[in-house]
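Here is a complete protein record:
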Amino acid sequence: MTTAQKFLVCKGTSGMGNRILAACTALLYGELANRKVVIDWRDESYSEGGENAFSTYFDCPTAYPIDALPETDSVFPDLWVGNLDQSLGKYRAELNLKGYADMSFDPSKIDFSEDIIVFCAYTHKINSLRPLFKGEFAPFSEMTVSEILRSILDAKMHLVKQISDEIYGYKKKNFTPNTIGVHVRYTDIKVPLEKIIGKVQTLVNKHKGSAVFLATDSQDVITQFEQKFSGLITVDKWFPPQGQRMHQNWDNCPDRYQNGVEALTDLYLLSECNSLVFSSKSSFGYVASLLSKADTRNIYDVEIDTSLMGRLRRQSKGLLKSLAAKN
């Protein structure tokens, strides 16, 4: 039995940055395919009792609640028939699958007849959507991935008022007129710490009296920054045992919902800083750069080679892409 309304279910996985990027893809695809979107974060990463954590964190006008989904066997991929209440991680382990391809529809296609299609991804899939940027959506074809993601975040994903108010209250109380935001992931994934510290030191030397706000998953990194930068600003939060990641740490995390609030607090405080230093190796850092209100000239990705040769290489690659597109 099929229904008149068509839905897309986006399953959450991994940390806050990853699932925000996947949700952005789903929300845009929903517009392209005229499907109602359900962002399903009922997995144990940020949910204690099976509630949908997405709606406890975000006010998203185009996202529908779980109970809006119809009772139907018209689901693609069909391995989700009767299993939509399963979390992505546990179900994938149960099926002994690697990756996400077998558990997700192909977002480059739009002609699915099923009532419900399921999207599973570790990050965004904006480039997969490019074949669909036609008609009223043609302007997206001229935009970069970051521009598209930023437009979705600005238009569709806003923090719930309670969390937002707490974040801006913290900013008002603790930030200075010039605050340098820094993100460092340094547990299961390690970003280039020395490059980040070096860039922060350059900015502090250039802008006397600046404060440094640090968002990190490592207490050791906080100690290093405290030794180098006086008056370091950090948010009080739970930390995992040394070397373990903060998300999906079910055995140790005392409050998964609060763990998500703390992640969002760091993320959105980074976006409020006058400048931002991060590594795009981390999805969290990349999302912070998308949300950032700083001038683009004051957003520094330490993975980008800013030397003369690095700039020339990027310019030549851009020229080659432009020529290829014209041909």
Observations:
- The beta strands are 7-11, 36-40, 58-59, 75-76, 116-120, 158-159, 179-184, 211-216, 275-278, 299-301.
- Residues 307-317, 322-327 have pLDDT under 50 and may be disordered.
